[in-house]
Amino acid sequence: MTAFLRKTRYFFFGLFGIFISCGPTEVDYRNILAQTKVAVETTRDVVILYSDSAELRIRISGPVSKRYVRGYSTEEEFPEGVYVEFFGSDGNVEAWLEADYAIRKEVDKLVIAQQNVKLENENGETIEGEELIWDERKREIYSDRFVRITRGDEVVYGYAFRSDEHFKRMELKAIEGDLRFPNVPE
Asked: Which domain holds residue 170?
């Protein structure tokens, strides 16, 4: 056997030994099992109420709620749709949101509404899209996706929507549509 073949053989055996020795030495299966165990609670005709200082602020309802508990993380899914009402300080509904699907990430305090999402305020203004995200901490609703806003006979299309949760103040980027401003000469 030539010296070249011997050196090549030793090189590959050495390389093989390095790959074998670099593998995990101990696997913590308890951690893996803890991550895969999921407790599921299913509730029908669910109503969730949020209050502040004994005043009703938000009511969430849906035909089915599935609550997933994964260790310290909890998510609540509304696979058959969700309806959310936002109440003002006077106790009247100021805005409402409906969607065919939603998931609430409890730790992040986010509700992600998807599929035929519609947000409407007491003035009849609506925003429609495929996804809106409600940030419970910041008390705002936003989306980076395409949305359609209707205000009376005006229809505006855009991306990067952001509003307070009562849909009274809003921002919209990449706007397209016809806008009418009162008291502005044409």
From this structure: 38-177
